[in-house]
Design goal:
The structure is a single chain. This protein is mostly beta strands. The chain has a domain of 99 residues: Thrombin, subunit H, CATH 2.40.10. 3% of the residues lie in helices and 45% in strands. The chain contains one helix and 17 strands. A six-stranded antiparallel barrel has the order 11-12-13-16-15-14. A six-stranded antiparallel β-sheet has the order 6-7-8-5-4-17, covered by helices on one side. Strand 15 and strand 16 form a beta hairpin. It is globular and about 40 Å long.
Length: 237
């Protein structure tokens, strides 16, 4: 059958747009996007959201870097307030991380900006030296590297929030990072099924080496049940 030009109706639609990693008011609070919070010095600091979680009471929220927030009760923003820091022990820490329980109606998910889907998490003992990994941050986007050492104790500075200036149980790696990437999720490379495995969150860097806190240490210290996976879909309190 012939179709004549006059039989074709064109429907004008709005162009398809996507939100940038650093946009405010993301529809989903997912790993790898920009968040802001008052830091221990009282200044507003930007960092990267780590990953969605479910806590041991069945509530949802996310993990972020601990050093950009004052402590428990601090409001964290993503355009507007999205939740308060619920757990952030200040002494004898082995992970630079804080748990934010999201406010009612705020959506969190088990994905990372850019379409990376999480289907598992691996602790530090499961990741050998030489393993290839990725870091997802607001400043450097996605960077890759390899693990060079495990169970590292690193001194950052006298102004660092925890343990008189340093952190223990860190994983050392070669991926690139910059200011603002703190808290960014660290994952394995995309597997044959199209998923990534969550390994932890970025802490900081010294010289040519970057450091992340392992996910298993984070879950234990913050009394969390598990990370959210992509199969969990979008969830909210």
């Amino acid at each position: 059958m012939q179709i004549d030009a006059e039989d074709i109706i064109f429907i004008e639609e709005e162009p398809l747009t996507t939100q940038a990693r650093t946009d405010s008011n993301q529809d989903e609070k997912l790993g790898g996007i920009r968040i802001t919070s008052p830091n221990p010095q009282g200044n507003t600091e930007e960092s990267t959201l780590g990953f969605g979680v479910i806590d041991t009471t069945g509530k949802y929220g996310f993990v972020m870097s601990g050093h950009p927030v004052k402590g428990v009760g601090t409001w964290v923003s993503q355009g507007g307030g999205v939740g308060q820091v619920t757990t952030d022990r200040l002494t004898n820490r082995k992970s630079d991380a804080a748990y934010v329980r999201t406010s009612s109606g705020k959506i969190v998910s088990g994905t990372i900006y850019g379409g990376y889907r999480i289907n598992a998490h691996y602790g530090w003992a499961n990741m050998p030296v030489g393993a290839e990994i990725m870091q997802h941050g607001i400043s450097t986007n996605v960077t890759t590297g390899t693990i060079t050492s495990r169970q590292k104790e690193v001194y950052f500075s006298s102004n660092y929030k925890y343990n008189s200036g340093g952190m223990t149980m860190l994983i050392e790696a070669t991926y690139k990072s910059a200011s603002g990437d703190s808290g960014g999720p660290v994952t394995g490379k995309i597997n044959s099924s199209g998923y990534v495995q969550l390994l932890g969150i970025h802490v900081g860097a010294k010289g040519s080496r970057a450091y992340y806190s392992p996910v298993d240490i984070i879950l234990t210290e913050l009394n969390l049940s598990r990370p959210l996976y992509s199969k969990d879909g979008n969830v909210k309190n």
